[in-house]
Amino acid sequence: MLDTGSLIDLLGQPQKIVITTHHKPDGDALGSSLGLYNYLIQLGHHVHVISPSDYPDFLTWLPGNEEVIVFTDRREESASLIENATLIFCLDFNSLDRINDMGELVRASGAYKIMIDHHLDPADFDDYRHWNINACATAQLVYDFIANVLNHKDYINKDVATALYTGIMTDSASFRLPNTTADVHRVVAELIDKGAVNWRIHELVYNSASENRIRLLGHCLTNCLEVLPEFNTAIIVLKKQDIAAYDVHTGDTEGIVNYALSITSIRLAAFIVERDDQVKLSLRSKGDFPANEICKLYFNGGGHRNAAGGQSTDTIAQVVEQFKLILPKYKKLLIQ
Ligand code: 5GP
Ligand code: MN
């Protein structure tokens, strides 16, 4: 275990640091990682960001993106960096199974492991934890870690601010979710003061779709959406042949589930997609409906109350059927 004083002492000397985040990083995963990266390099540390998988094109403009190592493309180099690291920061996840094959390498490394995260039920693999389930984004916690734990607000430059703004913006669904508190807005205002160009970041993330991505959205809403009014639930089911027809890339399906949730009476929305080796579910809910409970209990996953994910090795038809069979158990919560 590390206490805060010892961590501050360690960070006072040059360290060999690896920053990693969860499989298929989203805006918060990559934004918090590159925010921390752009801070740590100013202190003279030797820092590498290693992502367990590829990530969407709409994040590749982030400052420091060119330095990110994708583990599956550069396994040996990544393994050596993890083995020789003195500190490993684990951002936006709290269980080593979220980083696939990298998990065992991180576990085996002699480095101190620092978890910065806002997901429920952290597993016990870390030496230091900056964890708060009430944070709207891990990027908010990275801001708090730099500004208030390490007292280094002055190091929050334009690059740090830009990456952290992106994390907060994406994980709070553009400052809409209930955990977007006045404090979050104060942090965001400060990030803008430090150089984050808010309108430009929105444009880069949300107005950068390929034509295929928008046509895929049209297809999903016209042909793949099923509304179950008796459960205030909407489901979008995307099959393998559609993935091929629309040349779907990583990130292209992100956000589609929110259209199903935006129907007025809908309290639970599911996006169920047939990937190469498994079926992936993305659940979103309104109010106090626990989407993460369904993912955890039935689909080997987890997440937050209003945004959760999971997967299954069953066929897509079986997964859809299983999902529908679960709904009666939650009827009271869904129709209230
Ligand atoms: P998404 O639906 O965008 O893939 O994920 C929504 C939320 O659920 C994110 O916070 C993500 O970290 C979490 N999540 C997605 N898939 C999984 C999973 O397989 N396991 C766990 N524990 N969390 C997941
Ligand atoms: Mn997050």
Automatic annotation (TrEMBL):
It comes from Mucilaginibacter calamicampi. Pfam families: DHH (PF01368), DHHA1 (PF02272). InterPro entries: DDH_dom (IPR001667), DHH_sf (IPR038763), DHHA1_dom (IPR003156), Oligoribo/pAp-PDE_c-di-AMP_PDE (IPR051319). This is Bifunctional oligoribonuclease/PAP phosphatase NrnA. Residues 246-323 form the DHHA1 domain. Residues 16-168 form the DDH domain. SUPFAM superfamilies: DHH phosphoesterases (SSF64182). PANTHER family: BIFUNCTIONAL OLIGORIBONUCLEASE AND PAP PHOSPHATASE NRNA. Its EC number is 3.1.3.7. It comes from the Bacteria. Keywords: Hydrolase. Transmembrane segments: none annotated. GO terms for molecular function: 3'(2'),5'-bisphosphate nucleotidase activity.
